[in-house]
Amino acid sequence: MSTRIETLEFQAEARQLLQLMVHSIYSDKDIFLRELISNASDALDKLRLESLVDKELQVDTSDLHIDLEVDRGARTLTVRDNGIGMSRDDVVQLIGTIAKSGTAEVLRKAKEAKDAAASPELIGQFGVGFYSTFMVADRVTLLTRRAGASGGTRWESSGEGTYVIEEIDDAPQGTAVTLHLKPEDTEDHLFDYTAEWKIREIVKKYSDFIAWPIRMATERTAQAAADAADAATEAAATDEAGTNEAGAATTEVQTLNSMKALWARPRDEVDQAEYHELYRHLSHDWTDPLETIHMKGEGLFEYEALLFIPSHAPLDLFAQDGKRGIQLYVKRVFIMDDCQALMPNYLRFVKGVVDAHDLSLNISREILQQDRQIQLVRRRLVKKVLSTVRHLQTDDAERYRTFWKEFGPVVKEGLLDDVDNQEAILDIVSVASTRDPEQTTTLREYVDRMKDGQDDIYYMTGESRLMVEKSPHMEAFQARGYEVLILTDPVDEVWVERVARFDGKPLRSIAKGQVDLGTADEKDSTEPEREQQKKDFSGLLTWLARTLQEEVKEVRLSSRLTTSPACLVGDTHDITPTLEKMYRAMGQNVPHPKRILELNPTHPLVSGLRKAHEQQDADAASDVLGETAELLYGMALLAEGGELADPSRFTRILADRLANTL
Ligand code: ADP
Ligand code: MG
């Protein structure tokens, strides 16, 4: 008897996703079953855990399983579990909306990609989940009751704009999803999903490792038995009841999956496809992982770990509430997702399972964080992931490049957070450099190429490669053939300060501090010349420093410029303009350090200014000189991509000057 029936609308993003499903863009429609089984398996995991933690909960957990039920006449397929179930609000929340971040963006892209081949890949980035049922069904009914609750919920939709939701008095605990299947159509890759062989095949292919039994009642005739034997899927089926007598039709319930936890099996008995299927189950990512790591820890603390490095970054990699991808099991029992204690934040993209043997099933996140054994496991996992990437770097440059392109910016966070592994991380870092616009370089390669007499590793940070490359600071380095690393990820601004050295060589920003390029010989020969220059320019420098005192803290001659008249530099430990901008964008009020204006004494504008200044009485410099000083400072600011405080004043002075030259 129903107490309340309502028709509700899907959230806008959910509607879009459903549209894509109904007009199915993906040719491998079989995966809908994997999605339903995966949800059922999650629900069983959750119930198992809840019953362990909440002793008050009155539920029977003695036979947790998944049932597949076929009604050939009605053309329905039902996936039923006796797991955690959902409340009415859960159903509205979980089935009526898409909460995952980044989904809207993917949907937009998927729509743009008219080409059907491109779309599944995009959709695969977040997993299609429950909605994939609408690829094969024109109506879906869901009946569910939350463990511990008395009433149940019935949900139904044809995947258009709305769904009907109804409170019902009784429903078995758990969830049953019934698909009213579309007519079979092999042209459209739509098979008969009521056929036993087809169901077996899909379960075997996608869900074999699921830890709960997936059962199906089958009508057995001699013919059916022979058919089943033909199907390659037969091998895994474990007969649970009944025997076959030739010719007689018997009903028997079979378990279709082998339920073996892959991570517990010896490495040489697991093939790549099985690993990849588990990865898909864990990550909802349809592309194969870049790397699979299977490890075992013996001795005092036993554990098995199966880790995957994805081949592309997830959409929420930089989201505030970004999760870590490690599931914790204790002796095959699922304990928790997003196990932060087992993977540092900078490796949050690593997916996988850790099965620890000697932990309590009741263990809390807080206790885990402090558990010494867990910390030990974590250290080993981190070392293993880093060394795996290191091996990729030497053995498979192509895959290493993919890794670094996708995850480099995140891994570099580790240079700040994980001091113990700083060296191992520095070993796998690669960065852009002035040497080759197409190729990145490792720090090791850079050091190996350093010129004789070069003591420092030169780098410059900035917002883009172009800005850094064209910045005036680069001039003398380029003229002398020094390679400079170009760092443009936001995190670069921070780690270069923190790390300070690689292989004993200091990391030096070319936009900071004094630059003293050239060999010892060169220095000797240029020294007297420089002394003379200093004397010649001292009047101008003093005057400029006073004129521009609001803007800069010092004015000096530069040895880093060859063609530009001036540039701005910071003191060694000053925060860079890019970093300052980043902090401000995050709403933090950072001090604005004054910078140093460096002049190129050989530039006609600078030498001209000096002459003009000498002809004036130093203390009563004309307006024209003052304006030139402003222009000089403004140009230095613009050249590095900075913003003028008063652009209209700058352009007015410039326009006046240009007019005078005509
Ligand atoms: P995902 O599994 O990636 O979260 P789905 O679309 O497959 O996305 O499912 C959405 C949510 O609906 C699940 O996270 C889960 O909370 C809930 N759900 C789906 N199926 C079941 C089920 N059989 N039992 C309990 N909850 C379920
Ligand atoms: Mg799911």
Describe the structure.
It is a single chain. The chain has 662 residues and is α+β, with helices and mostly antiparallel strands. The protein folds into five domains: 212 residues, 2-Layer Sandwich (Heat Shock Protein 90), CATH 3.30.565.10; 39 residues, no CATH class; 141 residues, 2-Layer Sandwich (Ribosomal Protein S5, domain 2); 81 residues, Rossmann fold, CATH 3.40.50; 142 residues, Four Helix Bundle (Hemerythrin (Met), subunit A), CATH 1.20.120.790. Helix content is 38%, strand content 20%. The protein is built from 22 helices and 24 strands. The strands form four sheets. Strands 1-6-5-4-7-3-2-8-10-9 form a ten-stranded mixed β-sheet, covered by helices on one side. A six-stranded mixed β-sheet has the order 17-16-19-18-21-20, sandwiched between helices. A five-stranded mixed β-sheet has the order 11-12-15-13-14, sandwiched between helices. A hairpin with a 2-residue loop joins strand 20 and strand 21. The chain is elongated and about 110 Å long. It starts with a strand and ends with a helix. The relative contact order is 0.06. About 2% of the residues have low confidence. Adenosine-5'-diphosphate (ADP) binds next to helix 2 and helix 3.
